[in-house]
Structures are given as C-alpha cells and as structure tokens.
Amino acid sequence: MTTPILEIRDLHVRVEDREILKGVNLVLPAGEVHAIMGRNGSGKSTLSYVLAGKEDYEVTEGEILLNGQNVLEMEPDERAVAGLFLAFQYPVEVPGVATMTFLKAAINAQRKARGESEISTPDFMRAVKEAGAQLAIDSDMLKRPLNVGFSGGEKKRAEILQMALLKPTLCVLDETDSGLDIDALQIVSKGVNALRSPERSMLVITHYQRLLNHIVPDVVHVFSDGRIVESGDKDLALQLEARGYADYEKDVA
Amino acid sequence: MQPTMPVRLSAAETTLVEQLKAAGADAQAERITVAGLPSRRVESYHYTDLRTLLKAVPPLAAPANEASAPALRVPGAFQLMIANGIVQDNSTAPAGVIVGKSEGPALTLRDDMLVHINTALARESLNLNLDGKIDPIIQIDRRTEGEAAHSASSARIYLADDSEATIIETYSGSQAAHLSNHASYIALGKNARLTHITVDLSARPATHFATNEYNLGEGAQLRSLVIHAGANLSRAHVFARFAGQGSHADFTGLNLVSDGQHCDITMDINHAVPNTGSKELYKQIARGRSTAVFQGRIVVSRDAQKTDGKMMMQGLMLSDEAQILSKPELEIYADDVVCGHGSTCGQIDEEMLFYLMSRGVTKADAEVMLVRGFLEELIDPIEHDELREALASVIDQWLVGGLH
C-alpha cells in the first residue's frame, strides 16, 4: 500500500486549559480530496492551524504524518517545504511587503531549502502571469502590499495563487468559501480544481455544503466536538445540509 | 529662584566650559558653570540627560588632513563636504546651485544648549542658494576626521521661490570618540519644494548632535527624514516654523538602535499662520539593551486657524531589554484646527510571522521582511530611486547585525 499524503493518528490538542481536538484520525491518500464539515467551534480551524504548525496549540497526544514523515517537531516553514500549504480562512495583511516580492521570496525560500537554485525572474514572471490569469488577478493587485486592502474575494484568490505557485502536495483549505460571492466562489473553485492531480491531496474544511458543489470531494468527514464522527461519500454533505449538525451534538451531550 | 550653589561640574562639562571660554562664548560658558548641561529636569532633554550621558568632551577639532571613505554613496549626487567644521572646495556646481561660505553660524538663537554650543563653536557655514528645479540630488557629506575631536559644523540653505530640490546630509568620519554638533538652517521660499534627509552614520564610539531648523514660506512643501544609524549617543532636534499660508510638511524619522545605544529625535514645530498642515511619522526599532527616544511638540499659534496636524510614533521592540520612549505633545491656541497624535509600541507581529513562515520563509528571513515592511512607509515616498536604494542599504546594513 502506498503511503498516504496525510495521516492523522489519535490527535489530541489543547489550547490553554481546554481540549479542542479529542482524538482525530484521518487517512488522506494521494490524489484524493477530503472535506471536513462541522459546525462553528467544532475544532475544524484548530485542526488546520495545528497542521500548519501555529504556536499556542499544545499537541498532547497523537501524530501527524505528511508523506510518512512526522511533522509535529517541524517549524511552519519546514512543513511548507515538506509540501504542506494552508489557505487561510483570514489571510493576514502584511503592510509594507509587496505581494510580488513576497511571492518570489516564498518560492525561493522553498527552492533553497530543497537545494534547488533560485527561480529566474522571467520564469517567475511567467508563472505568476499564468496562474494569475486563471484567478483573475491583475498586476496592479500584485504590486500592492500583501493582502492589505484586498477585498474578501481578492484575499482568497491571492491564497489560491500562492498555492498554485508553491505547488504543495497537501493543500488545506480553511473555509475558503467564507466571504465569497457566487462569482468569486466559481473563480476560486476553478483555480482549486485546476490543481487537483494524482500526486496532490486536498483537505477542504468548510461549514457549508455549497463549496462542495464546486470542489467535489471523494470523502466527506463530519467533525463534531473535536473528532470525526462520521465519514461518507459526497452525498453525506447533502444530507448534512438537509438535517444540520444537531444529531451529532446530541451524541456528545 | 536661582540656585545659590553652582552644580558640581563633570569632566565633560569642565572641558566644555574651557572650550566655550576660549571661543569667546563667555555667556554660554557661564550658563554651563551655573546649571550644567541639560539634565532630565529640562523638559526637552527629559529622556536624554546629557549630564549623565555625555561622559567626555574631546579637544576642539583641527582642520582635517585626511578623509575616510564616504559613508554613503548616492549615485549621481552633487557632493559637498564639510570636514571638521571646515567647508571644503567643491566641484563645479550644477545649474541653479550657488555654493559659498560665510563666517559664523546659521541657526536662530533659542533656549537650547546644543544650539548655543554650535553657535559658539561653528566658525563658518556652508551657504547653499538654490534656484529653479535642481536636477541632481545634493549630498552634504559632513565628516569628523582624525583623532577624537569636538567639532561643530553649519550649513545655511535657501530655496528661492518655486524651486525644487532633494538634499541628503550624511554624518560620518574616523573611528574615534568624536563629539560632533551639526546645524542646518533651511528656508523655503514661496511654493518651494524640498526633500531633506539627514543620516547619522558616525562610528559607534562617537556622539552625534544635529539641529535642523526649517522655515516654510507660503505654499512651501517639505519632506524631512532623520535617520539615526551610527553613533552610540545621538540626538537630532528638528525645529520648524510654518511662516507662510498653504505650506505643508511631512516630518519623518527613524531611530535604529542597537545594544548600548541611545538615540533621540526631538521635534518642535510651530504652525504660526493659518491654513498650514503637517504630518509627522516617526519610527523606532530597538534591539539589545538600548534606548530610543521620540519627543514631538506641535504648537499651533492663536492665529493659525485651519491647521491640520497629525503626529504618529510607532515603535518596534526586538528585545526585552530595549526601551522605546515617546512623548507627543500638542499645544493649541487656535480654536478651529484638526490636530491629533498617536503612539504605539509592540513586537514583531506573531500572526504575520506565522503567515510568512507558513509559506516556507524561515523565521529569520520573515522577521527581516517584516522589519523592512515596517520601515517601507518612510522610504517609499522619496522620489529618487537612487536615494531610496541608498537608504534601504542603510537599513539593510543595520539588519546585518541580526535582529535580537
């Protein structure tokens, strides 16, 4: 059996004195797209931050394996180099850092860490132009400081642009549909779908089923009270939309 | 009530008194004899107590025999040099620039000890008369060379009506414990436009004092940028008077402070006539055990209705032992004005750092990127590419030392 891109084993996570994740188990094979659905506060975003290596989260038990490699001891930048990408729910505004400058720095940081040479400026410009065109991102937007003054839709498109340029093996999309109107949702979904490939896996975290009409998952996991309580195919998302998360809540109580 | 007992003078003060007497500045010598150098009890020196910070005053500077390498090269700039207080011969001046020199100092006398010392000790002033749109950047390269010396230099700059210029003044010299006291008096004529940048790049053992005095005529536009990136002890005092209606100035500055350093930018400006505006943005970054000081005072005179002033200080602390001090003040005598001030201080933003690192950028590189980003606002408005690059190199040089 081939190594899955992502394997989460019995993951328990605390923030201060509160246990947020209470034993998450997940296997995400190469090429598959899995959705995680759950109500607000169920721990979905915590999972995405823990995957990316944010501080302030204490992993008390369990493992996260990326291509068979335990990432828990790795810094966020090392995880990125290992192939992980988190598309943020709320991309951070970074004043004074031009988007273009940042994109090039990120690409080169990853190349350097992998022992590759820096990307040439023409190659970089070409890559940005190609990926940008697909996401309706113009050069004016790229000249602005990173995410500063971007609309909700622009921020999400910029996240997918970064994803396209950095070519991760694992894409974690945290509520990528939040704050998007229908047109922007289509552009973003199209951008994401273009990146689907047999070598790449995606974990799509969402509150609503509508995103999954555009990015159709292979597996849907239902998240409740810090763990996965049910898994199924894409129809599970439709059932959830119809009946809500209340049934799972009762189990907990 | 006058103190009955004179203060006990420090070694530095004793030397200074002798030097002032020798220069014929008996009144100033007497002042120091009675009250000493400005201490924390003098409001404008509250955070920069010269009685304790100024440990020694070296002998008065003799003319310089040799010059060290220029501290900062600005490609294409017209260069002028003042070495150990003496105005040096220059190459042919570009169109619209008349260079000269005159006896004596340039500053307006006021109740400030460093102004008095400069006035007493500066033997001559560089005179710069600018008329029209001056094409090249003008660089005034001020040096203190040779053995440790106490030097005073002075420049007087006039921009004729409707003229336009960019001037950068750099302060540097040999690796010695110099005490340098520099003065610039700058008058902007009607609708004149000036970008004036001063950068301290003195050697670490040095002490650097500078006074910039601006007088703005009707419709004049000024951008002022003060950078401290050199001496262990530095202080720049920015004075400005908005004397003509419709004038506007952006006052900006940056203290880049490392372990063992104390840098102070003090600004004191007066909106004296109606319909003038100023925007102040000062930033301070401190690492190691160090102190950065900003004091800003905006005085709006009784007649200066419709004044628009907005002052901001932003500090970035890179170590627990660093100290960033800020004292913004507004003194408003007119009743129809819009004035505000703010002051913030913090560390590198953890959320931004995580975001950049999550894309594969190492922590060290991400921090440098964020510091550059923090300073971008000061450099970005400067029009000449060469100048922006030269200033970015000053910042990069500071960053080479590591952030913490």
Automatic annotation (TrEMBL), chain A:
Species this chain originates from: Devosia nitrariae
MF GO annotations: ATP binding
Protein name from the UniProt record: ABC transporter ATP-binding protein
UniProt similarity note: Belongs to the ABC transporter superfamily. Ycf16 family.
Keywords noted in UniProt: ATP-binding, Nucleotide-binding
Pfam family, one: ABC_tran
Domain ABC transporter per the UniProt entry, residue ranges: 6-250
Keyword rRNA-binding: no
UniProtKB/TrEMBL annotation, chain B:
Family matches, as InterPro entries: Fe-S_cluster_assembly_SufBD (IPR055346), SUF_FeS_clus_asmbl_SufBD_core (IPR000825), SUF_FeS_clus_asmbl_SufBD_sf (IPR037284), SUF_FeS_clus_asmbl_SufD (IPR011542)
Superkingdom to which the source organism belongs: Bacteria
Domain SUF system FeS cluster assembly SufBD core, residue spans: 148-374
Matches recorded under NCBIfam families: sufD
Protein name as catalogued: Fe-S cluster assembly protein SufD
